[in-house]
Amino acid sequence: MKNIAKAINAHFEEYICIILFSSMTILVGAQVLSRFIFNFPLDWSEELARFIFIWLVYIAISLAAKHNAHLKMEVGEKLLSKIIGNKIYYVSDICWLAFNIYMIFYGSKMVQELMGSIQVSAVTRINMGYVYLIIPIGFTIMSIRIIQNMWLRRLDTNSTNQLNPQDHSTTNGKNNNQHII
User: How far apart, in whole angstroms, are the C-alpha atoms of residue 64 and residue 80?
Assistant: First the structure.
């Protein structure tokens, strides 16, 4: 059970992105095939593929946050020491989390209003609240990943500070600077 939980934690966004991207590709392919080969367009497939794409984007944003692949102030870490660079990262992550909390709060309010309204999509007649539901979900997942990265960066900083300078160059008296070609 722990292995399943670890796999989900490690690859949750990847699995969701694969499912969403595959279903979007199948829908668009079916639309092209039915329209140009069978001369029978599927009206609903284009709209559903668009909604899936919106969900895919928000999950992919969370995936990028998990891998620290978003544009941030990396100058601090590259030009300054690792400790000061990490502090700059913390400030940028706190600002990012504040924005995410704002989006979760107002995105949830918007979803609640849309779920209670009669606004539906034009072709598939899906309640637009389900389409917009990805806003609080995506920003929540992204916030979790940012907090995980902050925690891992803190652990990395603490472990680096506790090492001896000799621990970086040798292990059991052997030099680690040997390169294997």
Answer: 24
Helix (H) or strand (E) holding 175: strand 174-175
Helix (H, G, I), strand (E, B) or coil at 101: helix
State which amino acid sits at residue 36.
Answer: F
Nearest CA among 67, 73, 104, 66 for reference residue 90: 73
Residue 129, helix vs strand vs coil: helix
Distance CA 170, CA 163 (A): 12
Average pLDDT over residues 138-161: 86
CA-based nearest residue to 160, from 96, 86, 62? 86
Q: What global pTM score does this model have?
A: 0.81
d(CA 147, CA 157): 15
